[in-house]
Write a structure and sequence with these properties.
The chain is mainly β. The chain has no helices and 55 strands.
């Protein structure tokens, strides 16, 4: 391989005579062993997006043990975005160990073992004119090889990495907040299968090594790979996966049945839409890389079954870069045993590279291996026994064709293997006459959001511009103003831009109050050391009030808990009608995200045997435990310190309000 070298950095040949079009550079560098900044030069241009991937290896070879990671870095809106994930599974163990770690802060994460002990993590802090600078927040004395794929040039107008949740509802899900209409989308997700913690934990080790990668251009061009390595409560490795050319996101459950399937439905102004053919049982966290500008193609092909040249001619244009991914299995829509992934990339015949890993299904002891390589674009191995994996297939990148690319298989398997690709090239043509549409900041600032977000957008003249509004909790959407004039409350709203510039903004109105519970029934109410009933004669609103009567034998406290999902974000206070038979006995209110994160409020100003309309300021609790998430309240609990007496508590009409 012919490469230019600068210190420990090797980069592919890049033409820099013209910054026009799309620029692609693929390369590797050896990470530093100390914390602080590390500068990577030689890319040849200023990147707009970076894709990293790595194994925990210090030389180009294969070794046993499995550790793989992948990350995105972009700069959008003057801010750097870094997202990454890594998985690991240890070799030769009687009791399998596997784990996952993900981050919204670091695009490179390296762990030392499957217990997810952190070895190093870094984020991109600057795109320079010839490369990039990463900052190692944590580091170790291990000179790992990192692959990168840099994208830039004038044709790429927007790049952004971000995060969203694939939700449990079926059908279409609109993902907003991207800020532009993408031309290409890449997803990556890693998780515990059960995802029992919410908000989802980042920057910590998680059980199970679960990883998925998907990419798409439109509903007809997409693909995804997914691998699962289970380690909890078993004595043999349970590993499996799936690869599809008609989906962009998918997960399997612990029994190898489908948990979720989603395809890319459309690219939208300000985001994209997924069609959840099978929604997940629980929300699934997912990271994305969105790109606008240039040309993209997503497709698939089968590997040769003999050595020799293979032309892939389904791209439709001459690429400048190509990315390949395969589980090294024949084409199938179902799962297959063993977790395996080979990925590779190239931007010229003088530089190509990739990684491979495999974790053998039902091996006892565990049997896994990994490889990083820079002399081929794809390479994978097959196990011969518990200590050896022989080379099974290898392909070099030869050249880009007018409608695709060419590979040379120097080693091939007799059964064809299914391979996914995405290719990138220069934009097809210059845009027509464009006009500016400015989306103004919403009013008030915390009232909600628009899709697309606030900013300047260029659209073709005489085309329609569509915008939608989503109110924040505690607000309702009121109206649009186009050039300062009220144009109504249609949502979404669209208009013909004609040939002149426009400005449009969304206006929201604060909701004064929302009822949390009418207290007309015992639905969702749970007593402790008390009995609950409805009083239909002594109440303040609706048809009744909750009565909390001490249970026998009498205790020091009686409790009544309202348990259901509630959203208090956007509101400043709770208002509750309360009546106690003995006002000398203290009443407290707990507002909780869970039993580890809650606020306590002391309720004062009560009068014995009289209804009092109580206002509880949510921002001034008496005490705090953990950190409460007001958008995800799971229960509120009233405690009445009856001190062994038969004192009763009545509750009616609980509302969240803005005061």
């Amino acid at each position: 391989m012919n490469v230019a070298k600068t210190g420990s950095i090797s980069v592919g040949t890049v033409e820099t005579s013209s910054p026009a079009g799309v620029l692609v550079a693929s390369g590797t560098f050896t990470k530093s062993t100390s914390t602080g900044n590390q500068t990577i030069n030689g890319v040849g241009f200023q990147p707009k997006a970076l894709l990293f991937f790595w194994t925990r290896q210090t030389s180009f070879d294969w070794i046993q043990n499995m550790s793989f990671g992948m990350g995105f870095a972009t700069n959008y809106g003057g801010q750097y975005q870094n997202y990454g994930h890594t998985i690991a599974s240890d070799d030769n163990l009687d009791t399998p160990e596997a784990g996952t770690r993900r981050s919204q802060t670091y695009s490179i994460i390296i762990v030392t073992n499957a217990n997810m002990s952190l070895g190093a993590q870094a984020r991109v802090v600057e795109f320079t004119s010839t490369g990039f600078i990463i900052n190692w927040q944590t580091n170790e004395n291990h000179q790992d090889i990192i692959h990168y794929y840099a994208l830039g040039g004038s044709d790429i107008t927007h790049a952004r990495a971000g995060f969203f949740e694939v939700t449990t509802s079926g059908g279409n899900q609109s993902v907003t907040g991207v800020g532009f209409q993408p031309d290409f989308l890449m997803l990556m997700w890693s998780m515990q299968y059960y995802e029992v913690l919410y908000p989802y934990p980042f920057d910590v080790g998680l059980n199970q090594a679960i990883l998925g990668i998907g990419f798409g251009k439109n509903s007809g061009q997409q693909g995804a790979v997914y691998n699962y390595v289970r380690e909890s409560g078993i004595t043999r490795a349970l590993t499996f996966g799936i690869q599809r050319n008609d989906l962009i996101f998918m997960t399997l459950n612990i029994s190898r049945f489908t948990d979720s399937l989603a395809s890319l439905a459309s690219m939208d102004v300000g985001g994209f839409t997924l069609n959840k053919l099978d929604p997940p049982a629980r929300n699934k966290p997912c990271m994305y890389l969105a790109l606008k500008g240039g040309q993209y193609a997503v497709g698939d092909f089968n590997s040769r079954t003999t050595m020799g040249i293979q032309d892939v001619t389904s791209v439709g244009f001459q690429p400048k870069g190509v990315f390949l991914a395969t589980r090294t299995k024949p084409n199938s829509t179902g799962y297959t045993n063993t977790a395996e992934l080979a990925i590779g990339l190239a931007n010229s015949s003088s530089f190509m590279g990739g990684t491979w890993y495999e974790d053998v299904h039902y091996a006892d002891p565990t049997n896994n291996a990994m490889q990083t390589y820079n002399a081929s674009i794809l390479n994978w191995r097959n196990p011969t026994n518990s200590t050896n994996f022989n080379s099974a297939a290898s392909a070099n990148f030869v050249q880009f064709l007018s409608n695709g690319f060419q590979l040379n298989w120097t080693k091939a398997e007799s059964t064809p293997k299914h391979i996914l690709y995405f290719a990138i090239g220069d934009g097809a043509q210059e845009p027509g006459i464009m006009v500016n549409v400015t989306v103004n900041a919403v009013s008030p600032a915390d009232g909600g959001s628009t899709n697309p977000f606030a900013g300047l957008y260029q659209v073709s003249e005489n085309s329609f511009f569509q915008i939608s509004a989503t109110p924040a909790s505690g607000y309702v959407f009121d109206h649009w103003e186009l050039e300062g004039a009220n144009v109504g409350s249609a949502n979404p709203y669209s208009f013909n831009v004609g040939t002149s510039s426009h400005s449009i903004g969304a206006f929201f109105t604060l909701i004064p109050a929302v009822q949390v519970d009418s207290c007309d029934s015992l639905t969702n109410w749970i007593p402790t050391w008390a009995t609950l009933s409805i009083d239909n004669t002594d109440f303040k609103e609706g048809t009744g009030a909750i009565v909390v009567t001490p249970a026998s034998p009498l205790r020091w406290y009686s409790y009544a808990r309202l348990q259901k999902p509630m959203d208090f974000s956007g509101f400043s206070a709770l208002q509750i009608w309360i009546k106690v038979s003995d006002a000398t006995k203290p009443v407290q209110l707990m507002v909780a995200t869970d039993w580890s994160n809650y606020n306590m409020y002391t309720i004062t100003g009560l009068t014995s045997n009289a209804w009092t309309h109580v206002t509880v300021n949510l921002s001034t609790p008496t005490s705090r435990t953990g950190v409460i998430n007001f958008s995800s309240i799971r229960f509120i609990s009233f405690s009445y310190q009856i001190r062994g007496t038969a004192a009763t508590l009545r509750i009616d009409d609980i509302q969240v309000v803005n005061v």
